[in-house]
Amino acid sequence: MFTPHTFSIALLMMMTSAVCWGSWANTYKGVKNYRFELFYWDYAVGIFLISLILALTMGSAHGGGSSFLANLQTADRSDMLYAVVGGAVFNLANLLLVAGIDMAGLAIAFPVSIGIALVVGTVMSYAIQPRGSAGLLALGVIFALVAVILDGKAYAALAGAGRTASRKSIVVCVISGILMGLWAPFVTHALTAGNALGPYSAAVFLTLGALLSCFIFNIYFMRKPLVGEPVSIGGFFRASASGHLLGLAGGIVWGVGTVFNLVAANFTGVAISYAIGQSAPMVAALWGIFAWHEFRGTNRKAKTCLALMFLFYVFAIACIACANTAG
Asked: Is 327's pLDDT higher than 70?
């Protein structure tokens, strides 16, 4: 299977994962009259399909005992279960994140949710697999937390610009962030315990867990939505082809980012790879600000907070990247 042999290649893969994780939500922003609960079925199929395709190609390159199919035969079933559970946890977190995007916009939902996830996921993953400098990782996490606080202050300024500042949307994003940080430790266990899963196998079981759990979580939100009226599955079959394609595209983009992140973790450790990948809020905020104009008309204070948010995320990424060689 393909894995990076130098930190520069691993870093490139981690940054690619950050771009993918921060960009996939644009596909949802681009759909018209297609509820996110229905869009999410296409998305969940997309993340599983691309993970399986990459496992059968990149994950099977050169054959050998570490290839995807060989790894499936030797890995512990308990590790497969850990990855599936991690996928289910991610799925619930991501459903809440999409609801948060629906309510608050990309520039707010992503930094709040994923910033919190960065803190939770990095700390817990490092506890399971302590690789790299704990001090630099801690400093990076603190910088990320400051960035989240600054983003919250920018959000508060939306009310001054004549827009609704919903407390509910922030609560949804916070809960999403806590849950989003909890899937990484499950995958860390799957990658490190006993006869462990390889990164491509872990991605397949992670996304399988996400897809299967849609039959619980997504159906619940269809019946009891956080935004709007209940929706039936009939709306899925009546949706336009472009809506379905955008849903699949969103899943494919996220899935590529996830596979690249787990493959890079094979070199750096999950805590470092996950933390750099979770710089995705910078990417999402840029989309929200410049492509979707979510902060048009806000005051100088809001723009200053956003600029400082980007700066502190840069500090966070730099500290976490340096932690790989300083540990």
From this structure: no
